[in-house]
Amino acid sequence: MKTADNEKEHAKMWYKELFGIGDTAENLETAADGENYEWTDMYVEFAKTAEEEVFPQLAKKFLMVAEIEKHHEERYRALLKNIETAAVFKRGEVKFSECRNCGHIIVGTKAPKVCPVCTHAQSYFEVRAENY
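User: That's the sequence. What structure does it adopt?
Assistant: Structure tokens below.
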């Protein structure tokens, strides 16, 4: 685990040096564009090749994964819209916001600037989802 963490940090360091890291909106736009390429071009071409090479089951799986990538693009674009409309930490309706660091829950229309329990920034809050 420690070695993997070291290697991950090395990769992040080189990436920052070579390409820089954009802000969240830029990163979401780039990610959405990448997902778009994957579902509109890459996996479609993989499926065509698989069909040509007589792998029909593989072709079907490529197309199913393309559908998943489409949903990923939609998710990234929805998150980007939330940033552009300042809806990330402020909602029109009452929601539960949960600090991803300590688990503190706020009930209201917006997350606090700082978690009152662990003092992590507002960016650590997310709309609480119970899907279990």
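The first strand starts at residue 90 and ends at 99.
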